[in-house]
Amino acid sequence: DAGVTQSPTHLIKTRGQQVTLRCSPKSGHDTVSWYQQALGQGPQFIFQYYEEEERQRGNFPDRFSGHQFPNYSSELNVNALLLGDSALYLCASSLEGGPYEQYFGPGTRLTVT
Amino acid sequence: AQSVTQLDSHVSVSEGTPVLLRCNYSSSYSPSLFWYVQHPNKGLQLLLKYTSAATLVKGINGFEAEFKKSETSFHLTKPSAHMSDAAEYFCVVRGLNQFYFGTGTSLTVIP
Fold it and tell me: How many CB atoms lie within 10 A of CB A30?
C-alpha cells in the first residue's frame, strides 16, 4: 500500500522565483491538504483540495496556489518567493467521509536564498 | 474555533521511565483529537486518535492517551520510554476541513 509521496525532497530557489511542489496521496484517498512547517514550529494549514477544487484555505496570501488532478494528486505553487517561505512543506491525504485522520508525506524542504 | 495548547515545549526523561506529554484543547463541538510524532528530517506519523468512542485510546509503540472532557485535556503517556521515542510530538484537533496543530513538545530520552 503506497503511502503519501512528495517531490522533490529538497529545493533551493532565489527570491522572486516561482516553485511547484508535487504530492501523490495514499492509495484510496481523495482529499489532499498542504501545510507549511517553519523551523521549530508546528505545521500551519495552507489549503485543502477535494474534487479538484480548493474548499478550505488557511491564512496564506494568494501567492500560494494549488491544483488537484483527476487522479487526486496535487501541486502546490508559490510565486514571488520570499525568504520567509523557507520551510518544510507537507502534504497530507485523507478520505472524504472518514476516517478523518490525515496521512502525511515526508515533505519537501524549500530553501529560499 | 478549535485550538490545542501543548503545555511543555521540552520534556526530558530517562530511558525506562514514564512519559507524559500534556495537551489541552478548545473546541466548539465534540472534538476529534490526534497525536502525531515527527522524527528529525521525517514526515509526521499518526500515533493515535480520539473520535468520541472510548476515552482511553491506545496507539502504536506503547503510547496511549486519555480524553478528559471535564479538564479539556488529551495527555499522551507511555509507561516506559525507549531511546527511539526521542522526537517531536504534536497534539492536533480537527476543524472543518483542516487540522490545527499545537506548537510541539520535544522529547529527549536520556540513556
Answer: 15
3-state secondary structure chain B: CCEEEECCCEEEEECCCCEEECEEEECCCCCCEEEEEECCCCCEEEEEEECCCCCEEECHHHCEEEEECCCCEEEEEECCCCHHHCEEEEEEEECCCCEEECCCEEEEEEC
| Whether pLDDT at B41 is above 80 | no
Which grid coordinates are listed for B5? Answer: 495548547
**Given pLDDT bands bounded at 50, 70 and 90, which one contains residue B18?**
very high
Is pLDDT at A107 greater than 90 in this prediction?
yes
Chain A residue with Cα closest to B47: A101
| A74 within 8 A of A34, measured Cβ to Cβ | yes
Chain B residues close to A42, C-beta within 8 Å: 90, 101-104
C-alpha grid cell, residue A59: 491564512
List the single residue in A42, A50, A105 with the smallest CB-CB distance to B90: A42
Task: Supply A63's cell numbers.
Answer: 501567492
What is the pLDDT confidence band of residue A1, given thresholds at 50, 70 and 90?
Answer: low
pLDDT for A30: 94
The vertex-A91 CA angle with B45 and B56, nearest 5°, equals 30
Amino acid at B56: L
Secondary structure (3-state) at A59: coil
Query: Contact A90/B44 with Cβ under 8 angstroms?
Result: yes
A87 touching B, CB under 8 A? no
